[in-house]
Amino acid sequence: MIDSSELLRHAMIRTEQHVANNTGFVAGVVQNISVTENVRRLIEHHDLSPEYVRAMGRLFVESQDTHRAKEILDRHNVVILEGGPSVGLHHAAVYLISTIAGARRIREVDREPGDPVSISALLGERETAWLLDLRRDTDIPTAVGRRIKSECDGLKLADSFLVVIGARGEWISGADDLMQGIRRPDPIGIIRKRLTENDNPLGIDPAVYLDDARVQSRLLSATPTEAVQWFEAIVQVHSAELDAESSVSLDSEAEIITQRRDMLIEMRSSWRDNLSKWHRQPQIDSRHRNFLLAAAVLEGQPVGNVFEAALDVATKLGEPDPEAAGQQGPGIIELTDIIDADLDGADRVQFRKPDYAAAAIDYFWLDRQHLRKDFVKWLATLPLNREEPREIASRAAHYILRSAVRQRSIKDVREVVLSWSTMSDLHDAAADLILAATLEGDLARAMTDQTLNWARSGEKEVQLVLAKVCGGQYARVRPTAALLRLANLAESTHEVVVRAVIESIANLWASEQLRGRILSTVQQWCEPGSRALRRKAGASAFLSLAGYTREDGRSNLFAEAMSSAVHRGLAELGWGTVLDVAAPGFALESSARRVLSLWLNDALLAEIQRDIISDVLVAAVRGENQMMHGAAMRATHLTRLLYEHPPSDQGHGGAGALAELKASIHFRAVDSLSRYALRALLPTAPTPGVESGVVT
Length: 696
Known about the structure:
α11 crosses α12 (253-268). The chain starts with a helix and ends in a 25-residue tail after the last helix. It is built from 34 helices and seven strands. The chain has a five-stranded parallel β-sheet. A two-stranded antiparallel ribbon has the order 6-7. β6 (341-343) and β7 (349-351) form a beta hairpin. It is mainly alpha-helical.
């Protein structure tokens, strides 16, 4: 049997769309069902990597609508695509971007629904293809269309392009010549394109499936997302083992095709008839049904875990005594066979039919609607005290998210995240669940608001998880929202949360694309007008960035401050903030001394660098606008950091050069304050070369 999971992983590019009737998931190989996979797909959808754009362009089915849209884009460097919720606007937009020659960068405009639409802000980046998605905006100002049109010349001068997608409305007024409606593409064409353009290692003949009248009938009104689901189902069915005990003989190619076609129809019907017949068998009781449900959620797990989970779910669903004493009732092997599954060499449960696990859960969800709430509660507790809790949690989170999308409510997501955040082993799964819900179309707005509430006033545990989310993939696709939440988390009264925020900032600093935003964010935190808790977090974040080293061991921020006014400004403000909070014994003291030692050591490499660090630290002592407010205190704190507990590393020029540099910095800091008659309040520098402590 061919490994369909590998086939799907390497041979397919999926489309996800924010459509009203779409659950947000496409049928996949059951063994790979997890919220982590959901996150990967959603990130891919927003990140617009060159590989993703090329693949989506190659698989797109062109039409007269997209031909006209391409002409508009070529003529004006802008096109506005409008259409209904199920026509594939995202894929059409990405296809158009894939046709642009000369675009060095591809970016989605970073904004949340309701944020102002600023096209002029995009002109600063040359040779960039932008995607602006307005589909989730409910009230777009009427001037947006005219504003977009007014920037066409600016985009041309920047050799940049803009593709806008949204619903038709008054906002397009004034830019009608830039607008192109997109109609739903031919679903059979989508499937055929993917089977012929997708390296098809199975050599699937599209006619084997697409010539079936039942398939054609089902595809008549299919959306692009549903067409992709059919394609994925075809790949899985074509690689699945056929039922040797079927009434259909497998002696001829025609008979094999018949069984595969039947399997495809059943699979795309969620195996509903098969499951209905199974449940109606007189010998099937709640023990069998619970084992099927547990196996569906835990497919790929050891069968012993499935058996225990079946007992657990029975209790959670209200059965008083699910355990049969002794050897009463069927055992594990019999139960596995009854649910039409097998055990692999490691005694892990695998269903015989493709996508059967998801179908079994869908059947329960429809058939036992009064038990939905208890089922979700069971999913939330399922990873506890189990082997491989993270994998189980990720799988459970997938179904919790699926339930939330169907109900268009984040209530269950919120409760599960709060529960899992109290257990460190489940923080990764909780973070993935937050991220997936925040990016999933029908949940995005409510979940975005929820994360902001948590950042401002959530419990310590959920704030730790949120800091992980905002310091990871979320910042790649929604940097503004991620940094805003980190800013709020920075004001937490819990020191462990603040440390997590600083760690997230340091992680994000590794991305060159985000450094400009991070510099701006940390600078805002360090401003004298910021609230005390945020300013303290700003000092810590600054030290984290200032201590980030390049491959040669030198401080990246110090090196940038040599030539960049922006970095120089942050260095002055950051050190000033550190000195403002640097009372004896303050929490950041060891970090401040370590980073200052690193910068001093770097400065000894060249005379100009000594001048730079001296200028930066003197400006830090002088304070905001060089107004000297609090300067005496900052000078005292600088002296202590320079001379107390000197580092064992004496720098590139030896102890003498380092002592001379310190004395020079101290002298300049003190001298700069003399005209303010503050010299009497300031510490006296030790004799150059002698670093025994602070002399006052």
